[in-house]
Every structure is written in C-alpha cells, then in structure tokens.
Amino acid sequence: MVAAGAETPAAASPRRPRPRRVAAALWSLPPIAALALVFLYPLALVVWQSVSPEDGGHSTAPYTAVFAEASFREALTNTVLLAAGATAGALLLGLALSLVIAFVPFPGGRALSRFIDLFLAFPSFLITLALLFLYGSAGLANGLWTDVTGAAHGPLDFLHTPWGVLLAEVTYFTPFVMRPLLAAFSQVETGQLEAAASLGARPWRIVRTVILPEALPSLAAGGALVLVLCLNEFGIVLFTGAKDVVTLPMLVYTKALLDGDYTGACVVAVVNITLSVTLYALYRTVMSRTGGGPAFRTGGAHRAGA
Amino acid sequence: MLVPSKSARRAVHLLFLVLVVPVFALPLLVIVAASFATDWSGVLPSGATLAHYRDIAHGEALDALLTSLATALAASLGALTAGTWAALAAEKCGRRTRRIIDALFLLPVAVPSVVVGLSLLVAFSRPPLLLNGTPQIVILAHTVLVTAFAYQSVTAALSRLDPAYEQSAAGLGARPAYVLWRVKLPLLLPSLTAAAGLCFALSMGELSATMMIYPPDWLPLPVQIFAATDRGSLFTGAALAVALMAATLLVLLGVSRIRTKASYR
Lengths: 306, 265
Fold this sequence. Notes:
heterodimer; A: 306 residues; flat; B: 265 residues; MetI-like fold; 11 helices; 78% helix
C-alpha cells in the first residue's frame, strides 16, 4: 500500500503515506536553512548580545541598566501611545471612508479606492515629507494664513511634536484598514439593508446592527495589523526629526549608530520584538479564526515591510 | 442605498471629500508641486524650475536611483525564489509542518525592520562572514524583509489553484518535477509576476533597515532623500521622491502588463 502510494502521486486515499510527507519536509529544508542563516541566527545573536554586558560574562545587567534610563521609559510610553492613537484614528477614518465608498456610492468611488491603494506602494516617509509642504513653517496651510491675514508666521507648528507623527501614521495606515473592510462590505447582502430600511431603520441603526457585526472580524484584523506596523514604524519618526519624539525603533537606531552601544540597542530591540511579535501572533490567530479569504490576507499585509 | 434622501447623500459625499482631499490627495500633489519649485511661502510654491531634475540626471542622485533599482532587482529575485520554493514545499507538508514554515516565513513581517538591520550588523560584522560595509548586506536585508510577502502571495495563489490540473497530469503519468515545471509554475506565473512587482516596490522604498547598514558606496534612493531633507534641501528631496515614486509606478505598471499578457496564455 505504501509503495503503491509512492508510485502514483495523486493517490486519493484520505491518509497519505508517510514517505511522501518526509520527502516534502526534506524539500522545505533548503529555504528554511537559508532563512535560518540570514534571519534567525542573526536574531538569536541579538538576544545573546542583549545578555552580554560590555565587561564580559552574561547577566541581565544590561536590561536593568536600560530599564532604569528615563529615555527608554519615555520611548516605550511614546511608542505604545502613538501606536494606540494611530490605530484608533486609522480605524475610525478607515471605517467612515469605507462605509461611504461601499454603501453611499458615487461616480468615481471605485477609482478613488484604487487611488488610496496606491498609497500602499509608496514608502511611509513620503507622507512626512508631504506634511512638511502642507503644514510646515513654509507650506500650503501657513502660506494661506500669512497671505490672508498678513501675519509674519502661520499658526500651525505641530509637525515636530507627537501630533505630527500621529497625523502621518493615521494617513499612511488608513488604507491598511480600508482594504479588508471594503472586501468585507462587498459580502454584505444588499437585501438585508433594504429589508432593514423598509422596516423603518435609520441609516445609523443599519450600520450598527447589520453592517458592523458582519465587518467586525475584518476591523479587528486590520486594527491588529496596523498596531503592529505602528509599533515598528521608523521612517515617519526619522523624517519628522523631532528630538522629543523618540520611539523604540528610533532608540535602537540612535543607540547602535550614534552612541555605538550595541548591547543597549539589542536590549531595546528585544523589548520591541517581544511587543510586536506577541501582537502579530494574536493577529494571526484572529485571522485563522475568522478564516479571511486570500484577497483579505494579501491585501491586509500588503505593505507591512517598510 | 443606505442614505435614501438626496440632500443627505450630498452632505455625506461633501464630508467624504473634505476628509479625503487633504488627507490622501494633497500629499502626493504637494510633493510633485514642490519638486518644481524653489520656495514655498505663500499658498502656492514659487520659483518654477527644472533644476532639481537636472541635478538628478547627472549627480549622485542618479547613482542612488541605479543603486536602488539594482538592490530591488536582486532582492526581489532572491525573495521570489526562496518564497516560492518554501510555499511549494509547505503545500506538500503535513498540517503541523506547514504551520511551522508559515510562522517562520511570516516572522520578518512582525520583527521591526530596524531590528532586522541591527541583527545583520551584529551577525555579519566579524569573520567568517564579514559582510558589514559591503553592498551585499543591504541586498541581504531587503531580501529578508520582502521574502515574507513573496511567500504570502504565492501561498495565497496556491490555495486558489484548481488541484484538478495537477492531478490529471500526474494521473497521465507525469513525474512530479514535470508537473511542477510544465503545469504548476505556468499556472502560477501571473501571481509570481505580481509578487515580484510587490517585492520590487517594497524594496525600492525600504528605509529602516537600510539606514542601519548602508555602506558609504551603496546609497539607495530613500537614504539620499533623507540626507537631502535632513540638511534642509526639501525641494531636492521632493524631486528625488518623485523619481522614486515614478520608478516604482513604472515597474508596477510593467508587471501588471505582463500579468494581463500572461493570463491570456
């Protein structure tokens, strides 16, 4: 039986013979070995270095030292607050825009959602650069103000504060929420909406009781993904260039390259990895529970790398 | 269909535009506008010029663009090979093995890119593998970062593939290697080109890991954009950003052409 199964690859028996699986597992070894060499091994070295203080030996002393630094605690708070705020903002904005595109359609709406998708092809730091021209000290909004009032300076000066980072992150990450939401909204039966409306339900009530329950898994998955991406975001913070907005990835960068403190950088890196990998595992669990379709899967995680 | 009254619908659309135009449409427009200007102190930029683009055509910016293109090409080819191989092997494995491979290949998405850069610095700064300071380390970092996306798109494409083709080829006596080469890969070709385009775009815009590891003789475009804006040359930075966006878009458009061509086969 086993031999016959090995001869005919498409054996339709419900339990496949073992040797074929072993062969398949062997075939998966080369890419895994490559990944281990260039990703897992370096990552393990980061953890190893984080418990190896400069003066030799191995201890948790680097952790105690880094946790005691005010700059680290500030960076941790900043990272978590900014990520939570940006996720909340992206969820609200993404939900509102997707609702209009899907249920209050207008000519050009589809093209518009395509255009918003375009954002996913561009790196995040372009948004910060654009905000400099929109709300910077010399830029569109302040220029409008000085032209109209004749004042020497415009009123807007928030780009180098956490609010500037927050605005950039909300802008950049909203499309990540909209993609899965629009996919979920296209599954909602219009008949249900019409039935609810003909029974006298007001639009807000239809959204709350018919549409939202259907879209909740997509909303949760999109939110979790954006939260992870915000925790890891570096380009936006770097381009903002504000001294008082330091996040964990920024701290890794300054510790390693500007201070030359590799052990400290590794400690911060381990903290950052722990935070985001835990969240990402949660996100994957939500996804497998809700069984998101392929479009949903590739759409949501599309641009997570930058 | 949700808002029956016409005036209410108009109000909703107006609100929608008020939200969308400043948040999504303006950022791309202002970057393009600024790239043709020398000064922005009023509502509109002033001092129209093509100087920034002339500088790109024969300066270090052109080197940066070519560096980025070479890096993205190498990284997406590497990522596509590794990701496709892993996805094809994982499909044949048992459920538990497949879960492990999934987790391993998606891990780079969850790890911050800056940390990926740091880990390569820590691992490859001493012999036997001394890569620190070479272009290879940048390409390696980009490959690691985009492999997850190649793996993810190929896995999704495989799950959509109709197993009947493969089964009938095998039933007619084709060997596994022949089935893979003549049946499966051709069927996957549209998804593979789409995945390649995605990897290329991601690598073109990669900044976080690159900032950690770039050697002085291998400056990709995003690093150059940061250097320009950091020293206050915002308008030069805008022109470089337009070059980056244009190159990315051209590649994505080219790939989508291949995809439509391939789908007719």
